[in-house]
Design a protein that fits this description.
The protein is built from 5 helices and 8 strands; from the N terminus they run H-E-E-E-E-H-E-H-E-H-E-E-H. It has an 8-stranded mixed beta sheet with strand order 1-8-7-4-5-6-2-3.
């Protein structure tokens, strides 16, 4: 119960952190740190290694079915997946729901989520600075480095402008497409 209260307070507080229309505030490429790698399973049981997405821009979202703010952002991420996939974007959701696929699979079916969702844990999330407040969304550049991190609800336009900037960056040689 305390976890839900903390997540709710963090989500409400974050709504005031970034006003609408704030331009992209990505870390300079030379100051970005590499994202931790992990291997998690998707809803079909396939293993997905984050490092295998190097060469693509990754929107990595830590979320849960019970998170109201997450439910606001998920349709945006579905739109980004449709709009920018061919340009090199991969949207990946990592659910931290404690009952696992029991609640996540019906949620994915009901919402018709079109991007890859993996089952994670708070231990995995903590590697990315997630500590009980959801959602946390990271933008990872084509080199596998964290370009930005957002906690709570952020304006859709901020995400989209940052995605566009990252997609314009030169992909590394031999990168995945």
């Amino acid at each position: 119960m305390l976890r839900y209260m903390v997540a709710g307070i963090a989500a409400i507080a974050s709504c005031f952190a970034l006003p609408a229309g704030v331009p992209a505030d990505l870390r300079a490429a030379n100051s970005r740190k590499g994202a931790s790698d992990f291997t998690l399973s998707d809803s079909k049981g396939a293993s997905v290694k984050l490092g295998s997405l190097k060469g693509r821009v990754v929107l990595l979202d830590f979320w849960a079915t019970y998170c109201d703010v997450c439910n606001v952002e998920i349709p945006w991420y579905m739109e980004f997946e449709n709009k920018y996939k061919k340009s090199g974007l991969s949207v990946v959701g990592v659910s931290v729901d404690e009952d696992g696929w029991k609640s996540v699979k019906p949620f994915l079916e009901e919402k018709k989520v079109n991007y890859r969702v993996l089952l994670g844990s708070w231990d995995v999330a903590k590697q990315f600075g997630v500590d009980n407040g959801l959602p946390v969304t990271l933008l990872i550049d084509r080199e596998g480095r964290i370009a930005d991190s957002h906690t709570g609800l952020v304006d859709k336009g901020v995400f989209e402008s940052e995605i566009k900037v990252l997609l314009r960056e030169t992909p590394p040689k031999g990168a995945a497409k």
